[in-house]
Design goal:
By secondary structure, this protein is an alpha/beta fold. It contains 15 helices and 13 strands. The protein has helices spanning 2-9, 32-40, 89-94, 97-106, 115-125, 140-143, 172-180, 209-218, 264-268, 292-302, 306-322, 329-353, 358-378, 381-388, 392-403, and strands spanning 12-13, 47-51, 129-134, 151-153, 156-163, 169-171, 196-200, 224-228, 234-235, 250-254, 271-272, 285-289, 410-411. α12 runs antiparallel to α13 (358-378). It is globular, with a radius of gyration of 23 Å. The protein starts with a helix and ends with a strand. The model is unreliable at 8-17, 326-392 and 402-406 (pLDDT under 50).
């Protein structure tokens, strides 16, 4: 109960009569014009963006809940007990085949970033992006050139996989080979035949430790929150909107208003949670209706960034068409690992042919291979941070204790 009260104390209370007790209003106008003016006047330097599947739909990746076109609507072929079961860890443990069939269709590297992804990159290049929090596992943020240390993949990543039995780690390329060969991946460690799962978060699993490490330092600093393409229907990601300071403006770019339903218990106590677009006492929340791409283009146009934005999109799209390298960090470092292995093998063979110590040559080749594979598996700085910090898992529990929030992926 003490932890719950501490969490409640961080939320804002609303005076239902005249809003006298509400926090200071920082926007000149509580509308889209007010958000643009707020950015133009350099009143925000630590923007956090929160994104869901809606930022990737124009790339050809379906979202989850849209009628007719949404992912859940088109899962009948898998004969699931319910659409969400394909991402439930308990179902996966007993019947993994539907997930891997779907993973083949959605696998990273088959799609290109959208204008919305490049808008987030533009915010970074302008020095305005504190962090980008995404629910997506398509890695398009990385393909768009957003640095790995600016991204928090709240629902995990395909970059690495682990055996659910012995926890042996496997690379992106290892998993890709098996998925595209229609083979359910099992561990190859001696004496283990455990199921291997990509490090994406299923319903019923804890979010990655780095999620909790970052949010505790990021959200208190946030001076503008931009939410794009999400239903805000999955916890604990949806609760992040309540973790920014009570004066921080919040812009939702979406096809419909979401996140407006306050927690029923908190509402009875007179405590505001969620987004408030329509009440007489609204003071910081703004809704822009439309696609994420159109919304980002409109923000760029109003800020005078339109030409720079379009040049960035055109330039990066040309690079993707012309580059022979893979489209994400992990495939690139995996390719580097293969190259290092080949070069090391050649070195070892040369030494052996020259009458050198064959054992030494083999050791050298093996060492180089392991180093390259380690680099490929690491993927990015966030993964390294999470692995290096033994207290990371404990922070998830601490977050739940302090705020009363869930730390497992769950449906609202």
């Amino acid at each position: 109960m003490e932890g719950l009260l501490r969490g409640l104390s961080k939320l804002t209370t609303r005076d239902s009569s005249d809003g006298a007790d509400r926090p200071e209003q920082l926007l000149q106008e509580v509308n889209f014009d007010g958000i643009i003016q707020f950015i133009q006047e350099n009143k925000c330097k630590n923007i956090i963006t929160m994104a869901g599947a809606g930022i990737s739909t124009s790339a050809g990746i379906p979202d989850f809940r849209s009628p007719e076109s949404g992912l859940y609507h088109n899962l009948a072929k898998f004969n699931l007990p319910r659409p969400e079961a394909i991402f439930e860890i308990s179902f996966f443990m007993h019947k993994p085949e539907p997930f891997f069939t779907l993973a083949k269709e959605l696998y990273p590297g088959r799609f290109e970033p959208t204008p919305c992804h490049y808008f987030v990159r533009l915010l970074h290049e302008k020095g305005l992006l504190l962090r980008h929090y995404t629910q997506n596992i398509d890695t398009l943020e990385r393909v768009a050139g957003i640095p790995g240390d600016k991204i928090v993949e709240a629902h995990g990543t395909f970059f690495t996989s682990h055996c659910l039995k012995c926890r042996k780690e496997f690379s992106l390329e290892w998993m890709k080979e098996r998925i595209f060969a229609d083979v359910t991946p099992h561990c190859d460690a001696e004496g283990c035949d455990g199921l291997v799962k990509p490090d994406i978060v299923f319903f019923g699993e804890n979010l990655p430790p780095v999620f909790f490490l970052r949010l505790k330092e990021d959200f208190p600093q946030c001076d503008l929150l931009i939410i794009m393409g999400t239903s805000l229907a999955v916890q604990p990601f949806a609760s992040l909107v309540n973790r920014v300071p009570p004066t921080t403006p919040r812009l939702l770019i979406n096809m419909e208003k979401v996140g407006t339903d306050s927690d029923s218990l908190l509402s009875l106590m007179g405590i505001v949670s969620g987004l408030d677009f329509d009440s007489p006492t609204k003071y910081r929340d703004v809704f822009w209706e439309g696609t994420c791409d159109d919304g980002c283009r409109e923000v760029a146009r109003r800020l005078g960034w339109q030409k720079e934005f379009e040049v960035l999109i055109e330039t990066e799209n040309k690079k993707l068409l012309n580059d022979q390298a893979p489209q994400s960090d992990a495939p690139a470092v995996a390719q580097e690992a293969a190259k290092a292995t080949e070069q090391s093998d050649e070195t070892a063979e040369t030494k052996a042919d020259a009458g050198g110590n064959e054992t030494e040559a083999v050791k050298e080749a093996t060492g180089a291979t392991e180093a390259a594979e380690t680099k490929a598996a690491a993927g990015d700085n966030d993964a390294a941070v999470a692995k290096a910090d033994p207290t990371a898992e404990a922070m998830a529990a601490e977050c739940a204790k302090e705020t009363g929030e869930v730390t497992l992926l769950s449906k609202v």
